[in-house]
């Protein structure tokens, strides 16, 4: 029997720390459900002490996720730990992940604490966390630049205090594989009772080594890998889940362990995270890039046709490519629609929402004859992000674009329930649509990102648009999908405005 390698996903916490990747509670719930479907062992759902929004998101995830452990991050202080403990209270399995920095530079310049004080604080943190759960993870922030003797000392102390998982983060992505593996090996050899805990790794990608460092550490005895979908994360990101999982699975001849991950859920997870955050996946990205399994050269194509394994070390279907089989069409009924939603894990809150979504499915099926799982995902995410009660809603649109003429957009928008007509011209129809919306919304926001992706193949595919807006230091992503990309763009812009509106409304109800 091989050891189990625990997959700890931190897309919703470290991933969300990427500038511009902030997610709403509903988006986090959708991602958490997909991670659970993929059989991720631990979902780090957020940092509850950071804001009320973070607290609520972790709590909502703890309420619905049953199979994966739901983890909350906390600095090693009483307030953070109590917030984390309260947030995970509803979880079937809840973990508190507490951390304190251990490198000389962090202790001296950031914490302004002596090494003795740091050890003392870490031990007290474990004590507070034990009031909520036995499943406690301790991280030595910037372990990659910490003194090995000091790491041994602090880890011995927190293990004695009750920590069950010991994480050794390369916080600034400074390590190289041999060195990082040696650190893990030394810690396991030298720390008393090291066999009673799980050794975990958390690598950042500043030198492009996050995956290599994590895998070297697994060879040295680590049995938990911390990672994110698409490698999302602070600065250059974290180790990519899909690369770690598939490296270990494909090279079972060299790795002494394997994960429980259902790899066919990898590509849907990648698309979901990319759609929600607006961070596109580069075409040549391993496993989840559009070209990851495409063979261009004649010699390769010939080889693959004769015998697949000549140039392919994994099968595209194994990681969820090609799962976009035709599922429904314009003649499909309400029951088929409902059961396919269930099969791909989309939860419909009420019969009303189902009826509404089914009507929109029929409209889509009229425009686009073949409906794939990705279309359903986009349709339902649109349905969930633009419900009837949203402040801004697109009711109708007309665009004009002709050679030699200035493009124009005419929109009818519901603003707080009031039907409003607006029009503008622009350098193109998308620009005109955004200006028309701004003429009524007067949000004064800055457009940080505009991106369009085809959801499936073919010219009748739906375009999925992401719009990132900034207003007074707040950054939100809006999404919209439609077979008409100008309409999708207008929907995405309005979705981003709704998110800003909801944020301000919650903070200050009279605004
Ligand atoms: O990179 C890091 O050190 C972290 C810790 C909080 C684990 O994200
Ligand atoms: Zn990190």
SS class: alpha/beta
Q: Percent of residues in helical segments? A: 40-55%
Supply Rg.
Answer: 24 Å
Quaternary organisation of the protein chains: single chain
Main sheet specs: 8 strands, parallel, barrel
Going across the biggest sheet, name each strand in turn: 2-3-4-5-6-7-8-9
Number of helices: 16
**In angstroms, what separates the terminal alpha carbons?**
60 Å
Strand content: 15-25%
List the uncertain runs.
Answer: 506-511
What would the average pLDDT be, to the nearest integer? 91
What small-molecule ligands were found?
Answer: 3-methyl-2-oxobutanoic acid, zinc ion
Tell the overall outline.
globular
Q: Could you tell me the number of beta strands?
A: 18
Protein name: 2-isopropylmalate synthase
EC number: 2.3.3.13
Function: Catalyzes the condensation of the acetyl group of acetyl-CoA with 3-methyl-2-oxobutanoate (2-ketoisovalerate) to form 3-carboxy-3-hydroxy-4-methylpentanoate (2-isopropylmalate).
Keywords: Acyltransferase, Amino-acid biosynthesis, Branched-chain amino acid biosynthesis, Cytoplasm, Leucine biosynthesis, Manganese, Metal-binding, Transferase
Summarize the structure.
The protein is α/β, with parallel strands linked by helices.
SSE layout and pairing:
Elements: E1 3-4, E2 6-9, H1 25-37, E3 42-46, H2 52-64, E4 69-75, H3 78-87, E5 94-101, H4 104-111, H5 115-130, E6 136-141, H6 148-161, E7 165-170, H7 177-190, E8 198-203, H8 210-219, E9 224-227, H9 241-250, E10 257-258, H10 266-277, H11 298-306, E11 326-328, H12 334-343, H13 351-367, E12 371-372, H14 373-385, E13 392-400, E14 408-415, E15 418-425, H15 429-441, E16 446-454, E17 463-471, E18 474-482, H16 485-507
Parallel strand pairs: 1-10, 2-3, 2-9, 3-4, 4-5, 5-6, 6-7, 7-8, 8-9
Antiparallel strand pairs: 11-12, 13-14, 14-15, 16-17, 17-18
Bound molecules: 3-methyl-2-oxobutanoic acid and zinc ion.
Zinc ion (ZN) is lined by residues 14, 169, 171, 202, 204, 234.
